[in-house]
Amino acid sequence: MHNITPYTSPTYFIYLLLFLLPIMIGLFYGKRFRVYETFATLVILVITFFGGNMSQGFSLIAYVLVEMIIVLGYLRYKRSPNGKNNFWVFFWAVILAIIPLAIVKIDPLMNNATISLFAFMGISYMTFKSVEMIMEIRDGAIKEIKPWEFLRFLLFFPTITSGPIDRFRRFQKDVLNVPSRDEYIELLKSGTNKLMLGLLYKFIIGYVFGTLLLPKVSLLALSYRDQAPLGISWALLAYMYVYSMYLFFDFAGYSLFAVAISNFMGVKTPMNFNRPFQSVNIKDFWNRWHMTLSFWFRDFIYMRLMFFMMKKKLIKSRITMANIGYVALFLIMGFWHGETWFYIVYGIFHATAMITNDAWLRFKKKHRQSIPSNKFTKCLAIFITFNVVCFSFLIFSGFLNTLWFS
């Protein structure tokens, strides 16, 4: 048996149905079969990570052990009589938690033909969870984590490979609670709707854009490589829109599956997308697109960087601080996606868009009386934002690298 990537084949959904049914029956009658949930989780993890290629499974085990030692070790330090809020202890705990992900990201640059020690699906999302726990332990928001609670949170199989990124305290409230029958019926309805929508997004609309259209417009755009300056053509524009649609429907489909299966298990995993292509500006877009990731970066990088600069009084201007924060935030996001020029440019592009957007909003507020605000201007704002986002996805796709350099 080969490793089965979650939510990509009918076989995986059949396994899910078989193992979810007892959990769903139990919750319908007001009971959580915790031992069975653990068993089902182990089986799904084996199917996902321990198929024909078992290296991912061993990498997962090594990673989880490392992260458990770091997170629980830091918690023990914080709870000890001599445990102080020492910045450097916290700093090194975060660095150590990130190192496995950094190894995976840097490994391709070393021209290493082998799979790095921690290479497995979902390591990014699990790292975000570990770092969040460390930061909230430092803040005093998390005061206790038992080893099995850590494992249950990190290895929650509906979201392990594709997100969304949940928060430990929110997750704990759900898994420690047994919803009433009426609440669970609503979760079943919500989960079923999301599952059906996910099937539409991923396997129908995503298939049309990703499998039927994208290869064709890609070849057409490449055919203009030597016929137009920088290969810029209407076909390239078509590629930009087709790829953007594929990226959204494929990823949103995955996220809907994860939320749906979570709902079936009585867990209200947060949504990842909220009609992002209806955004009126780029900041609105990031409040709608991959929301759990953007909120994670906002809460644990941007806001903490702002607080640090304000506390140390490094910069007087709040506008300058915000701009520095945007650049740092989106550069980190770019590097997180990969160490290639188009991911870095993608990050810089969005930082520039955020800075420009803030400047426009300040100007608009100052000249409120002379700038119209109506349905037309809203539609124009949505149109501009949509095209700015689609252009950023063209950069992100790496197609320009193929068009110009390959």
From TrEMBL:
The keyword Magnesium does not apply. It is a multi-pass membrane protein. Pathway: Cell wall biogenesis; lipoteichoic acid biosynthesis. Keywords: Acyltransferase, Cell membrane, Membrane, Transferase, Transmembrane, Transmembrane helix. It comes from the Bacteria. Its main location: membrane. Pfam families: MBOAT (PF03062). O-acyltransferase that catalyzes D-alanylation of both teichoic acid and lipoteichoic acid (LTA). D-alanylation of LTA plays an important role in modulating the properties of the cell wall in Gram-positive bacteria, influencing the net charge of the cell wall. Catalyzes D-alanylation from DltC carrier protein. This is Teichoic acid D-alanyltransferase. It comes from Companilactobacillus mishanensis. The gene is dltB.
